[in-house]
Amino acid sequence: MQSKSDVALKNWIAVDFLNQAPSLMEDYKTVGSQYPDNPYYLENIRRYIADWRNYWGKYIPDMIETKSVPDAAAWGHYPSPAPQNGDSLATTTYNVYVECFSPAQLSGIVFLCGNAMAAEGQGAKFGSEMSVLGNCLKTKLGAGDVPFIYSMPSSTLAPKITKPESIKGRSVALEINSWPNSKVPGTDWSAFIEKVIGEVYK
């Protein structure tokens, strides 16, 4: 798996797995508050209802009384169900590239890492977040213990890189010393592909 654009690992992780990495808890609260089975959903809905009560109870009466928009906006505003505890791109790539194939029965999952996946903190969060991603993809796309094979940047690419230590079942990390770049002619991934085939068909 690899998207056309280089994105963070959290973009590939399903919303119900985000809370399994400490660094992704804020994303879990933000994105998860839009899903009914998430504990932050009810909190967000209560806030949304309170916003509507305030809108009809104070905002509109103030507008009528002063004959102007209270917050100086050109046309005023309506309450929004969007969460107010931040913004996040977590899960966006998963929703486009993975969810449509779930459930599936695969022989193996190959995941190629890009620069953005180890950019923050020079790879310090890579291990915990890749562990979550591996478990997510194996759960959503696997039938039994499907092998999860992923590229992992060397310390040359990410000086503070950490290794995933809690991927369940069979997983293999293949270290890379250069980032994948489809725009560079002559990029040779044959050695990597041979390693993948060797691991899947052991």
Short descriptors:
mainly alpha, three-stranded parallel beta sheet, single chain, elongated, 202 residues
What do you see in this structure?
This protein is mainly alpha-helical and 202 residues long. The chain has a domain at 101-200. Helix content is 34%, strand content 7%. The chain has 5 helices and 3 strands. The chain has helices spanning 25-32, 39-66, 92-97, 126-141, 190-200; strands at 109-111, 148-153, 171-176. It has a 3-stranded parallel β-sheet with strand order 1-2-3. α4 (126-141) links the parallel β1 (109-111) and β2. It is elongated. 30% of the residues are buried. The model has no long low-confidence stretch (mean pLDDT 85).
- The helix fraction, in percent, is 25-40%
Radius of gyration: 22 Å
Helical/strand content category: mainly alpha
Low-confidence stretches: none
Largest sheet: 3 strands, parallel
Q: What is the count of DSSP helices, taking H or I runs of 4+ residues?
A: 5
What is the 3D shape?
A: elongated
Helix and strand run: HHHEHEEH
Strand order of the largest sheet: 1-2-3
Q: What's the pLDDT, averaged over the residues?
A: 85
Helices and strands in order:
Layout: H1 25-32, H2 39-66, H3 92-97, E1 109-111, H4 126-141, E2 148-153, E3 171-176, H5 190-200
Parallel strand pairs: 1-2, 2-3
